[in-house]
Design brief:
alpha+beta; Ribosomal Protein L24e, Chain: T; 38% strand
Length: 73
């Protein structure tokens, strides 16, 4: 599974670490992906979504079964 956001397609970007001596080594910036249960077309699926999509409301989160049972008690 590629580390990309299921909603917006955000993926890792690449660049250089640059030291004080101007030495350059390759590095990657990873997106902040979270595994969430989302309601997609009426079905509940577990997807990888970036925090920007979660925060902006682009996905509809689904409450887990364990959390509703503990609130009823």
């Amino acid at each position: 599974m590629a580390r990309t956001c299921s909603v917006c397609g955000k993926h890792a970007s690449v660049g250089n670490n640059v030291s004080h001596a101007n030495n350059k080594t390759r590095r990657r910036w990873q997106p902040n992906l979270q595994r969430v249960r989302a309601n997609l077309n009426g079905t509940v699926k577990r997807i990888l979504a970036c925090t920007r999509c979660i925060r902006s409301g682009k996905i509809v989160k689904v409450a887990s079964a364990g959390s509703t049972a503990s609130r009823a008690a």
